[in-house]
From TrEMBL:
Domain of life: Eukaryota
Xref: PANTHER family: ALDEHYDE DEHYDROGENASE-RELATED (PTHR11699)
Similarity field: Belongs to the aldehyde dehydrogenase family.
GO molecular function: oxidoreductase activity, acting on the aldehyde or oxo group of donors, NAD or NADP as acceptor
Xref: CDD domains: ALDH_F9_TMBADH (cd07090)
PROSITE patterns: ALDEHYDE_DEHYDR_CYS, ALDEHYDE_DEHYDR_GLU
Keyword NAD listed: no
Alphabetical keyword list: Oxidoreductase
Name of the protein in its database record: Aldehyde dehydrogenase 9 family, member A1a, tandem duplicate 2
Length: 532
């Protein structure tokens, strides 16, 4: 049974898959929902068809999963790091071997293109390999004390951790949380997003096949209520959350009641700053990578694109030309570069942001409309054309933008900048394929404007001036700054937010700190000197 969903993948095409197997996993096996009455349909975004039913877990099921994780933790935490590493490496190997099938299922459930889904699955097995490599290195310190006494510290796991994930990177988020957690000797109960529930259970089966104790990686399905049960459970030591700021605040509040450790990976509205001395073609490519991966549904996207005024016309001409050329359509075709958004409400929300932007004075330079692919089976899908919002007087009235630059950008009185910092589309996270382009004049000004947000997940700068690049990177109030590229997030690099984009880190060595704790052991070698 474990393999049947994946086994149907090689021949599967968009609009053909229906999943009926249970999506919960604990005690080493898939578990049927106790009652089906609260089942929610999960849609295939490319077609609008029902892919499966997601049945939320109630209190008893959550408790069963956590008890099973706790039992597994008792065994796993006593194993040496090298022994854990061996099992994890086997899990990474199995994922690598099945990468095409898992990627296909991910693309069907999420709508991201198969090309991106394959990259995501590769990040996932690399994450497990990376933390397997660190598992054997976990160690404490020896500290000599006066009189022959000494102390040592032990790096110990936390216990049962909970992972709560967003829908945009379902398999990646499940591995990014479980890999460091397991390397440190913890067990983890993972709740995927109710909109993307199908691949977390595949990961659970793979860990089991690789040899983890039954219960070590559990999957409970559900939405807010199930998430809240997890955050309140007394046997849970830590909650690692990926999602929106409003939900993150709730998770923190609930976890505070029993003083659970928390990692929050939240949303963003990141700035990408393009100076006039940049290599323009790379800057344009960077802006597209910063905005349109996974249909723009990426937390660290650089959606506020600040372009130095002198190069705005050339930049816009090129960025609009390339955006218009993005092939939108069937996510399972190798030639597609943009699939559907995750859901109908998300599509409507994003289109609503575009309408609002127009009302507030922005000009749609391209896209921003519902898109109906020519393939009849995709008629019910949640597609839209990728959108660039910019300045009204570029690329209009015929003539090239370049020719118009003297008129509209070099003469103060004629410059009409329709994307402004106070617009909704520039202030709020849209989470769709919408790029807002804003002009700027000086470095000092753009740094101030870039940081003028409550978010702080990522940032980027394109310039050939090496000193400026590092000066700007140091000034950004954000967890990451990309210089002359964007959205490069290999597993070795710490990832996380400043300000309201969250705290704690995922990826990189530092994440070991967030899934372990130090115990100090003090050893007396002589007699006790008592004051009493
Ligand atoms: N920083 C990062 O690494 C990162 C990565 C991916 C997505 N995100 C962010 O996630 C958001 C999009 O994802 P989303 O729409 O799934 O976010 P969301 O906050 O709506 O949901 C995230 C998860 O929280 C669960 N949840 C909802 N209410 C809950 C509650 N009261 N208690 C416990 N759990 C609850 C959901 O079921 C889901 O699993 C965006 O803001 C995006 O920027 C951040
Ligand atoms: O949506 C965010 C995706 C991401 C990239 N690296 C870590 N999370």
């Amino acid at each position: 049974m474990a393999q049947s969903t994946l086994d149907s993948m090689p021949g599967a095409s968009t609009g053909t898959v229906v999943i009926t197997e249970p999506l919960n996993f604990w005690g080493g096996k898939r578990v049927k929902p106790r009652e089906e009455k609260n089942a929610e349909p999960v849609f295939e975004p490319a077609t609008g068809r029902v892919l499966c039913q997601m049945v939320p877990c109630g209190a008893e099921e959550v408790d069963e999963a956590i008890q099973s994780a706790y039992a597994a933790y008792q065994k796993w935490s006593k194993m040496a790091g090298m022994e854990r590493a061996r099992v994890m490496l086997e899990a990474a190997r199995i994922i690598r071997e099945r990468r095409e099938k898992i990627a296909k299922l991910e693309a069907i459930n999420n709508g991201k293109t198969i090309t991106e889904a394959l990259v995501n699955i590769d990040i996932s097995w690399k994450s497990i390999e990376y933390y397997a490599g660190l598992a054997g290195t976990l160690a404490g310190q020896h500290i000599q004390l006066p009189g022959g006494a000494f102390a040592y510290s032990r790096r110990e796991p936390l216990g049962v951790c909970v992972g709560i994930g967003a829908w945009n990177f379902p398999f990646v988020i499940a591995t990014m949380k479980s890999a460091p957690a397991l390397a440190c000797g913890n067990a983890i109960v993972y709740k995927p997003s109710p909109m993307a529930p199908v691949t977390a259970v595949i990961l659970a089966e793979i860990y089991k096949e690789a040899g983890v104790p039954d219960g070590l990686f559990c999957v409970v399905q559900g939405g807010a209520e199930t998430g809240s049960l997890l955050c309140h459970h007394p046997k849970v030591a830590k909650v690692s959350f990926t999602g929106s700021v409003p939900t993150g605040k709730k998770v923190m509040e609930m976890s505070a009641k029993s003083v659970k450790q928390v990692t929050l990976e939240l949303g963003g509205k990141s700035p990408l700053i393009i100076f006039k001395d940049c290599e323009l073609e790379n800057a344009v490519k960077g802006a597209l990578m910063a905005n349109f991966l996974t249909q723009g549904q990426v937390c660290c996207n650089g959606t506020r694109v600040f372009v130095q005024r002198e190069i705005m016309p050339q930049f816009l001409e090129e960025v609009v030309k390339r955006t218009k050329a993005i092939p939108v359509g069937d996510p399972l075709l190798g030639s597609t570069r943009m699939g559907p958004l995750i859901s109908k409400p998300q599509l409507e929300k994003v289109l609503g942001f575009v309408s609002q932007a127009k009302k507030e004075g922005a000009r749609v330079l391209c896209g921003g409309d519902p898109f109906v692919p020519s393939d009849p089976k995709l008629k019910g899908g949640y597609f839209m054309s990728p959108c660039v919002l910019g300045t009204s007087n570029t690329l209009v009235n015929g003539g090239t933008a370049h020719a118009q630059s003297a008129l509209f950008f070099n003469t103060q009185s004629l410059s009409t900048d329709n994307c402004r910092d106070d617009m909704t589309c520039v202030k709020e996270e849209i989470f769709g394929p919408v790029m807002s382009v804003l002009p700027f004049d000086t470095e000092e000004e753009v740094i101030q404007r870039a940081n003028n947000t409550t978010f702080g997940l990522a940032s980027g700068v394109f310039t050939r001036d090496i000193s400026r690049a590092h000066r700007v990177a140091a000034s950004m109030e954000a967890g990451t700054c990309f210089i002359n590229n964007y959205n490069i997030n290999p597993i070795e690099l710490p990832f996380g937010g400043y300000k309201m984009s969250g705290f704690g880190r995922e990826n990189g060595q530092v994440t070991i700190e967030y899934y372990s704790q130090l115990k100090t052991v003090v050893v007396e070698m002589g007699d006790v000197e008592s004051l009493f």
